[in-house]
Design goal:
Bound molecules: 6-O-phosphono-beta-D-mannopyranose
Strand content: 5-15%
Order of helices and strands: HHHEHEEHEHEHHHEHEEHEHH
CATH superfamily of the largest domain: Glucose-6-phosphate isomerase like protein, domain 1
CATH architecture of the largest domain: 3-Layer(aba) Sandwich
Number of strands: 9
Length: 368
Amino acid sequence: MTWEPGRLDDQRHLGDGDPGGMLPAVAAAAAHVRTGYRTAVESRVDRLAETGRPRAIVVAGMGGSGIAGDIMAAVVGNGAPLPIITMRSYQLPGWVGATDLVIAVSGSGDTEETLAVATQAVRRGCTLLGVGAPGSPLEAIATQASAVYVPVPVSGQSRANVWLLTVPLIVAAAALRLVPADAELFERVATALEDMAHRCRPASESFVNPGKSLALDLAESLPVIWGSSAAASVAAYRLACQLNTNAKYPAIFGELPEAGHDQVATFDGPMAERDIFADAPAHALRLVVLRDVEEHPQLTRQREASLRLARERGVPVTELTAEGVHPLERMASLILLGDYASTYLALGYAVDPSSVSAISELKARISQ
Ligand SMILES: O=P(O)(O)OC[C@H]1O[C@@H](O)[C@@H](O)[C@@H](O)[C@@H]1O
């Protein structure tokens, strides 16, 4: 698997090297926002408001589905009048009970961790909201419990359907008056995604294409990816996961201010010294900072100081700024840029961005 940047501008390779159609799936982000909104409204997600606000919201989901909970929490923001947590495992915490809302998200509707949590939620008398494939085991659990279910038309990998899986959660948050989000906002987000998709389209060449440029930055490095606000950190985490799953590439996720108390120390370590790996410069760190227009003033100082620190030590840096007014718009533009970059990185290494054979093998081994 060698890195060949020329592959990014070879239209034939971008088609043949992507047999699962990850690039077209990524380009469908705007359509997914619109369909996710319509499906949530048609499924009467607003019924959640009938019993009043829950004490807490627990979102259960794995991989490309679980990120929906992180996006929801970041959109509602720090002023949230209730805790919103994302759970990525088999068991609901002991404190979750009948006054809480559990949202189970699964693109396939058939992920064992998520199904286990949905079943526990029903047993404990929690309000349940399900989001996932139509006709799935998750839908059966929700229907049996007379819970609201949003049957989103997911096709392919959940990570390529992130907006179909996320928008119903934002509609739920709006119904519970946790954040203002109406049809006009979702249309604005869709338009912003269309604009980013146009700039990152395969036919646009590397020197003007932000998705390809980011892939060029990331190639042959070990990316350390930080966010400088809650919203930017969700996009940073998503980018790290997309690099893992699309490009089969390692990445280290961090969040300011915490990363300034531990990961920053790696700027002085062996991975930051390019020449100790003279034969394999691929091991060198690259700091990628995703920033938001809304940052705590101390985080702005930390971000700027960390970038200076990295540059002074010869650690290459990439800084990306979120665009948009609403936090959902800002996260969406950064996430889509990262989705493109991770797919282009895969294609530059001639790696199939859709296949995840190690994940499938692991699932098969634990099901035996
Ligand atoms: O998203 P669902 O279908 O619940 O699956 C959960 C996750 O499983 C993983 O093994 C991967 O396949 C992820 O892309 C996926 O998101």
